Structure formats: C-alpha cells, structure tokens
Amino acid sequence: MKNKEKAITKHKGISYSKYGYIFALPFIIAFCICTLYPIVYTAYIGFTNLKGLGSTNFSIATPFYNNFKIILANPSFRTALKNTFMMWIINFIPQIVLALVLAAWFTNEQNNIKGKGFFKVVFYMPNIITAATIAILFASLFAYPVSPVNYMLERMGYPKFDFPQSKLAARLIVAFIQFWMWYGYTMIVLTSGILGISPEIFEAAEIDGANGAQKFFKITLPNLKTILLYTLVTSLIGGLQMFDIPSLLMQNSGPDNATLTTSVFIYNQAFKGSYMFNRAAAASMIMFVIIAVLSAIIFYLLRDKDEAKAYKAEKQRIKEFNKAEKARKAAAAQGGN
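Now predict its structure.
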C-alpha cells in the first residue's frame, strides 16, 4: 500500500510541460534559422555598403542610416509605395464585400442552394492556380492589337484599346487579378467564422422578429470581428508584398512604372544592375516597419473595447486592493509599536 502511495506521489510530481517545449523545439530551430536569422541579417545589411555578387569586404555605411535616407528620397520607391497601396485598396474593398455576401448567402439556412460545395470549389479555384499561369492568361486576354478583349470591343463597335500602355488600365488589371485570386479564399475563411457562431443567437433573433439584414449587421458582423481582423491584417501583409503578378504581367512595370510595387522595386535593387543589396535590405526593413505599424493600428482600432475596459477596471481594482492592503499593514505595524 505504501509503495502504491509513493508511486502515486511520484507520478503527481512529474512535470509534463517539458514535453511541450520538446515538441516545439523543431519549429523554434527552423524559425530561427529560416526566418529570424534572415530578418536580422537583412536589417544588418541595410546599415552597410554591401554591393555586388560575391562581395565579402563590406563595412557600416557612413552615416549608418545612409541607405534608408537614399531609399526614402528615391522617386521610384515613392511611386512603388503609392502603386502598392493603391492596387491593394482597389482589390481588397470589393474582395471583402463580395466574400461577405457569398459567405452570408452560403450559410443562410433559408436559402436552399443546391451544389454549395461545387460553387465553393469554383470560387476558390483561382487561388490554387499558379501566378505565372494567370499572368500569361491575362497578358494574352488584354494584349494589343490582337486579343480576345479587343476582338469583343471591335464586335461591339468600339475601337481597339492598348491596355498595356494605359497606366489606369494596367493598375486595374493587376488589382482585378489580385481580387479574382483571393476572394474565394476570403469567402472560405468568413464562412468558417459564420459557422462558428452559435445558431441559438440567430434563432433568438428570428423569434424577436429580426429580418435577414438585421441579423447580418447586428449578429454576424459583430461576431466576425476577430475573423475580419485576421483577414484584414493578412491581406495587408500580402498586398504590400505584391510581386509575382505585377512582375510577370507587365514588362518593365508597365507605362511610367504604373505597376511597380515595393517588392518589385526591392528585387530590381538587389538583382538587377549594380546588385545593391544594402539598398534592397534598407527598402525591405522600411516595408517591415510600415507593415508592423499599420498592423498595430488595425489591431488597436478593431480591438474589443468592452474587454479592454473590463481589463482596465480589473487592473485598477487590483491596484487599489494592493494599496489598501499596504496601508493596512503599515497601520498594523504602527499599532504594534
């Protein structure tokens, strides 16, 4: 009996937390080698004068922030930053609106839609097609003077239009491709979020006489705040790293650098011309800071205000309690004396 009690006591004293660290260790090692080290090394290169392939002799730039100053003053970088934000906003707004409408449509039990799975697969399919394939497809569709789109314009009585040489058209095409590729993925994510909402909430709203629009704006959207936050932040990160479609679709970034994005600018700095790795690294870190700051602002604006107020109230209560406890102990100590 005593041996059994000792075994139980020994079993209860075992700490299983170490196994969690052991299982997480492969990811931590891979993250440090493949992600953390490149980020830190890129930041370091941004403060050096490293240029050219195979260069081993490089030192800290004079002044150390010189590369960042040059990049921020570069007109091409400013144009790329403006194009990137413009094309992201143009594709994200209709993307999130259409994804919300489709997600609400598919999850509405009153809509007896046949073949929901088929439609979901069709809407998601552009996301799994390679960017090179899509770029070649749209380049052929909007080519000049011979292309399917120009043929349709001629058939409708309109003159041919040189889409690749129009700044507005080039940006709209890139934005549309990004929208077309990603709205299906966004729809799937939002659909999962809506399905995670308790059906009892919708049933209670129906009993109270709420219509479809009221349920969507008063129940669905507020309960999707976390999912919308995730979608917005990931879309922001992906949109500001837009590279494959703009670089493959338009030659030399389109007319007057109309489709030049920051990622394409960084690639050109690093692997074209003088191989200015230092300036490419500086531009990368500038984009890293911009994305981090914007993400923090989005997190702050979309935070749960009620939860934040409750946290502050609890923190204030604990502070007052500790203060009162400290005063009580001090009074007790004085009374003892």
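The radius of gyration is 28 Å.
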